[in-house]
Amino acid sequence: MIEIMPALTLLFAAAMIGAAFVAIRVKQISIAILAAGLVSLLASVMFLFFAAPDVAMTEAAIGSGLTTFLFFFVLGRVRGDKHD
Amino acid sequence: MIKRALVLLFLFALGTLFVELLLNYTPDTELNQTGRYYAEHSAQDIGTANITTAIIVTYRGLDTLGEVTVLFLTAAIVGVLLGRGNHKGKSLQRKLPPSGELLTTGSYLLVPLILLLGAYVFINGHLTPGGGFQGGAIIASAILLMLLTDPLRHFSHSLIAAVESISGLFFIGIGVLGIFYAGGFLDNRLLPLGELGALFSAGVIPIIYSFIGLKVGAEFSSMLVNLSETEDT
To answer: Does residue B105 form part of some domain?
Structure first.
């Protein structure tokens, strides 16, 4: 258990950087929004690793939940007819 | 060209800064003075099983009041900016594609459960991880799900405003009562501390956190409802 934690943390950190890179490079906006939400989701798991469940809950609820859906909502409004 | 070079230079400087931090990092073997005080005293002085809640609601209660105020200002500004001049278009004329069967049926099942989880999180803020802010955000996500299912659904602005103001008033009121009947502003020993780990314990913390949860949920919901009711131009 002690040995597996640093490796898992590194894996999640690498995945976060990858998702963040996807979010800024990809052409389709919807995929970029999903990737940005994934960064938040992975960040909340990282907070859980660092024994901060309160921060992890906030990050999961606001960062990956509300913001992602808010972006989709606004995207739908901006595009008008084509929803999501 | 020179812009690109500047960006690269900036990234390099940032990188060296972080590498420097990482190389000089040595994990603490024990808590620092403030942390030790909180860890040793919060269980007996405040009576919360969750130390983070003791810090947020009682030790640093004034900061929480500031955070709630900032959130209130944000919601108010969103309301002022978006609520202007869309009263004539109350009945939205635009045609919307019907949301799918999956979303509609799923929201009937999920919305009550999400609301229940949000209420659970802020009522148990002094026992389990989470609290007013997290619970409020969870409640707002239930409202968002309802809005996604039916964008034309009408939410009562006056109800949201009433919930928001009443919980704000009670939060401040309990804090002021603490000055007269307990140790100071936002002191939780207004009610008996009770038994550590019970639902009705830790003085007024569950009550304060429930009001914070309602307030935060109402603020987020009012932002979402305002965004949803804005007229396309």
So the answer is: yes
